[in-house]
């Protein structure tokens, strides 16, 4: 059902494999300074030239601060059936599609519901939350606008279903910023343990995978994108704390706040 959380505090610091620390972000191997960029007329700051590059973003836990939503949905859903949320439940389902989660949940708790009934119940609960409650993570919208101005192609690669991601993007003020929005439902139903959804996003915006940077909070997604030849930035999320060491070892960089995200894409 997703993976998602609150960002870390503004003063949180991390080092990764001898990388260079900048604010709350860590560059593993470094990110080159923008060369020959333009100037943002609104802020006076330098804007990198990212033409021919693409940035691909996960939604839950990466652009959207949605951990509390799924905690609440899980708690309410299971409480109606007299079940407390197990400590490992969120980690178990984080990379799954909705139907996979439904099948897993039915099997784990011995529920009488059908997978379709569970999916529909979760969807109705989530629609209300995403359309009215979920907010973008700090500085996410400003960062997207800056990348857009720099000439980068922007795409979403998500496990969220269309009837959730559309209202979520609209409420977060991001709907007009993306050149492509794709989900695992568009990628033959293959989850983020496979690179298909990232490759589909790259293909849809017409950028070679070697020139794509993926922003993701889920370790298995980062690993898939990396295997597809893409650069990967790990976005800290409380739900990924159990994988944070592996994320830092794998990613080209990590960040706690989009104010510290790379301005120049590979």
UniProtKB/TrEMBL annotation:
Gene3D superfamilies per the record? HAD superfamily/HAD-like, Putative phosphatase, domain 2
> Where on the tree of life does the source sit, at the highest rank?
Bacteria
The residue ranges flagged as biased composition, category Gly residues, are 7-21
Annotated region (Disordered), positions in chain: 1-46
GO MF annotation, one: phosphatase activity
Record InterPro entries: HAD-like_sf (IPR036412), HAD-SF_hydro_IA (IPR006439), HAD_2 (IPR041492), HAD_sf (IPR023214), PGP-like_dom2 (IPR023198)
| Pfam families listed in its UniProt record | HAD_2 (PF13419)
Biased composition regions of type Low complexity, renumbered to the chain: 22-44
NCBIfam families, per this entry?
HAD-SF-IA-v3
Q: Which PANTHER family match?
A: 2-DEOXYGLUCOSE-6-PHOSPHATE PHOSPHATASE 2, PSEUDOURIDINE-5'-PHOSPHATASE
Protein name listed in UniProt: Beta-phosphoglucomutase
Organism field:
Bifidobacterium criceti
**Lineage start:** Bacteria, Bacillati, Actinomycetota, Actinomycetes, Bifidobacteriales
